[in-house]
Design goal:
Blueprint lengths: L17 H11 L2 H8 L2 H5 L2 H9 L10 E4 L4 E4 L3 H25 L9 H23 L5 H7 L1 E7 L9 E7 L4 H24 L5 H19 L5 H27 L5 H21 L1
Antiparallel strand pairs: 1-2, 3-4
Helix pairs in contact: 4-5, 4-6, 5-6, 6-8, 8-9, 8-10, 8-11, 9-10, 10-11
Length: 285
């Protein structure tokens, strides 16, 4: 198109690429970008979604009197019953949604794609946590439409800055999860489900591993259908997903073939040995 000047647009023929950088620098140094970076929107705030996943793991380790030290602000807790843990995880996720609301307000009137890299990791953590909670409740995968519905907020705002508070209007804020963020979050979910399977085997639960295995096969089939035609990040997750599925299927094999001859309290040890063997074979190959 611009063969004479080395395929550069006309405004760069004389001044070079530094012109583009200079033009964009004032916007990148603007308030939304600065607050997104300094406010850790993708860090400490939205990473609490990962802590919610740790909390939900208590569902699989709810033996009476057993204590678990969860990371961050979750603290040392005695594993209560299922409803109590789900309620507590919902409270944690509500806190994450408030952080997402702040991000949506910061990006009001801005191009979301310009600031997407600042929040994408945190949004993937949120997808992982909320989909894990949804699987615990329903044994199914939450859709991206359901997640985006949860990330639609309505607040009361004054029409003018000088308003006395009586003249208010309802304002709707949205921060949509992109398809790529959703897929990457679901891919990370498979790792949580693999750990859930390990915990279930250790507790003598012989049903959950088979439910998880069937679910992971469906997820793997979906990712295999995308293959290398999708974004690079998604195709890169496919190998990790395959590893998680292999470990879960290995646990199901141990339960099905040797479950009757091995005491339940020893199943976890047998499974951990097989898992280590798989990891060693993969590292060699």
């Amino acid at each position: 198109m611009y063969a004479i000047e080395g395929a550069l647009p006309p405004r760069l023929w004389r001044h070079g690429p530094e012109v583009c950088v200079a033009e964009r620098t004032p916007r990148l140094k603007g308030a939304p970008w600065r607050r997104l970076r300094e406010g850790s929107a993708s860090g400490g705030g939205l990473y609490r979604g990962g802590l919610c996943a740790l909390l939900i793991h208590g569902l699989e380790e709810r033996r009476e009197g057993c204590q678990f030290d969860f990371a961050g602000d979750v603290g040392l807790q005695i594993a209560p019953d299922m409803e109590e843990i789900l309620t507590e995880s919902e409270i944690k996720l509500d806190g994450v949604r408030q952080k997402i609301l702040q991000v949506a307000q910061e990006l009001s009137g801005e191009d979301m794609h310009q600031f997407h890299r600042a929040v994408t990791t945190g949004l993937q953590e949120y997808v992982e946590a909320v989909s894990f909670q949804h699987f615990i409740k329903t044994r199914s995968l939450i859709s991206v439409e359901e997640i985006n519905k949860q990330l639609t907020f309505t607040t009361e705002e004054s029409k003018t800055p000088s308003s006395d508070g009586q003249d208010k209007q309802l304002v709707t804020w949205r921060l949509k999860i992109t398809p790529v963020d959703y897929l990457l979050g679901v891919a990370d979910l498979t790792g949580e489900l693999m750990r859930m399977c390990i915990n279930s085997v250790g507790n003598g639960d012989i049903d959950t591993p088979f439910e998880v295995s069937q679910f992971l096969r469906q997820v793997y089939d979906g990712f295999s259908f995308i293959g290398n035609t999708g974004p690079y990040e998604v195709s890169k997750k496919l190998y990790t997903l395959k590893q998680s599925l292999a470990k879960v299927e290995n646990a199901c094999y141990a339960l099905k073939v040797r479950g009757s001859e091995i005491p339940k309290h020893m199943l976890a040890d047998v499974f951990s040995v097989k898992t280590e063997m798989i990891d060693q074979e993969e590292s060699i190959s």
